[in-house]
Amino acid sequence: MYEQMVKSRYYEDQMVEVYTEGKAPVFNIGAGPVPGEMHLSTGQEPAAVGICVHLTKDDTVTAPHRPHHHAIAKGVDLKKMTAEIFGKETGLGKGKGGHMHLFDPDVKFSCGGIVAAGIPHAAGAALASKMQGRDWVAVAFIGEGAANAGAFHESLNLAALWNLPLIVVVEDNSYGISVPKASSTAVASNDLRAAAYGISGAYVKGNDPIAMYNASEEAVARARAGQGPTIIEIETHRYLGHFQGDPELYRDKAEVPGLRQLDPILKLRNMLLEAEQVSEKEIEKIEKQAKKKVDEAYQFARDSKYPEPESALKDVFTS
């Protein structure tokens, strides 16, 4: 879990630098090696690693438009993922999907991009698992704002009705784009909504990867045993804006330094060392290996070719 969190954080830190290349002095969203919007998950790593450590490649994960930490935790090919974000032909979707539409069927990972769009897909995967008599689990990651969308309620109603192995992880990072949670959501936490469907719910405080691990372990075990869906909401923190270049006029900038003092990666690192589960030398080795893999992925993406214009409609279903 620590290695995956470090890898995810370093990946996002590198993306901040790469994404800004060629976009100054006037911010141009289409310029540079990575065009388009960019939504980074710095600070939200515990939500992904805490549950994905319990999953196999046969379990399905769907992610929203802030998907990198989910993809890394699920084991998506890092080189192909980065090449896809760069729009290169060696990418997961041969450069056609980009950052918000990452798909890796080898590990059953998909990113819908649109708010709440991944929940029906995950419910479909959970239904397929049940119909085939498998013990596969489907996990849908969403932001807390997406819990107010129709797809959330419709999917959970059916999942409860059909007793599907679906887990919805709500990442409460305090803002639905620029709207504070208290201004958009009638309940204090979305796990409370589980009662409306007669299913299990759990709340994880403090952006704690160990608490997320424990809550997820129970939810995954229930799903595999045929005991139905679970809603898990985790209190997490978005250190960066909704998108890169976001002026964040809705946010008190003073809150971010305080959040970083409670950084979940640093907390887990200190806990491992204090418990003498690892040595400083082992921690350094883990961090070095994680960063090496990220550096290799970015270099692979830079070295890869852009697709030829005539390939735009290749491998695309057309009627």
From TrEMBL:
<feature type="domain" description="Dehydrogenase E1 component">
    <location>
        <begin position="36"/>
        <end position="310"/>
    </location>
</feature>
<dbReference type="Pfam" id="PF00676">
    <property type="entry name" value="E1_dh"/>
</dbReference>
<keyword id="KW-0560">Oxidoreductase</keyword>
<keyword id="KW-0786">Thiamine pyrophosphate</keyword>
<feature type="coiled-coil region">
    <location>
        <begin position="269"/>
        <end position="296"/>
    </location>
</feature>
<dbReference type="GO" id="GO:0004739">
    <property type="term" value="F:pyruvate dehydrogenase (acetyl-transferring) activity"/>
</dbReference>
<dbReference type="GO" id="GO:0006086">
    <property type="term" value="P:pyruvate decarboxylation to acetyl-CoA"/>
</dbReference>
<dbReference type="InterPro" id="IPR001017">
    <property type="entry name" value="DH_E1"/>
</dbReference>
<dbReference type="InterPro" id="IPR050642">
    <property type="entry name" value="PDH_E1_Alpha_Subunit"/>
</dbReference>
<protein>
    <submittedName>
        <fullName>Thiamine pyrophosphate-dependent dehydrogenase E1 component subunit alpha</fullName>
    </submittedName>
</protein>
<keyword id="KW-0175">Coiled coil</keyword>
<dbReference type="InterPro" id="IPR029061">
    <property type="entry name" value="THDP-binding"/>
</dbReference>
